[in-house]
Specification:
By secondary structure, the protein is an alpha+beta fold. 55% of the residues lie in helices and 18% in strands. It has 5 helices and 4 strands. A 4-stranded antiparallel sheet has the order 1-2-3-4. Helix 1 packs antiparallel against helix 4 and helix 4 packs antiparallel against helix 5.
Length: 143
């Protein structure tokens, strides 16, 4: 049973760490954008269109775009809160940040409970079996 508690604790801890790392990554969504004006000027088609295809990637708080209009890539960065407040609702970003924090918090508490049960008082839960199952269920639901 100690091995089972340790395995569950490591799983909950890795879930919390993974969600914390994913929250900070800049590549949540990616796409490509065609510079239609440049492609129409030179009447590009087929493989030539790749010279006019730019990239767009953004994460939770900012992003990066590379414009390709046939003259090479021009990279620029943008951030959501100062620049895109009128286009994207702030409530969406705040709720995503809140739930990412909830995932990290509940996963940390669940892993703490598991390690407490594995090495603290042997095979006794802090708030009874239902307390242990409750924290685990909340942690899994938020992830």
């Amino acid at each position: 049973q100690t091995l089972l508690f340790c395995l569950s604790g490591v799983l909950a801890l890795s879930s919390g760490l993974l969600s914390a790392v994913v929250s900070g990554l800049p590549l949540w969504v990616g796409g490509s954008v065609l510079c239609l004006t440049g492609a129409e000027l030179v009447n590009a088609s087929g493989p030539e269109l790749e010279k006019f295809r730019g990239e767009l990637s953004y994460g939770l708080l900012g992003g990066r775009r590379v414009r390709q209009c046939g003259l090479g890539g021009r990279a620029s960065s943008f951030y959501f809160f100062p620049e895109l407040l009128s286009a994207i609702p702030v409530g969406l970003h705040v709720s995503v940040l809140f739930f990412c924090g909830v995932v990290v918090l509940f996963s940390s508490v669940a892993s703490g409970f598991f390690f407490f049960n594995a090495f603290g008082r042997p095979y006794e839960t802090l708030q009874g079996p239902l307390g242990l199952y409750l924290w685990t269920a909340i942690s899994c639901e938020t992830f």
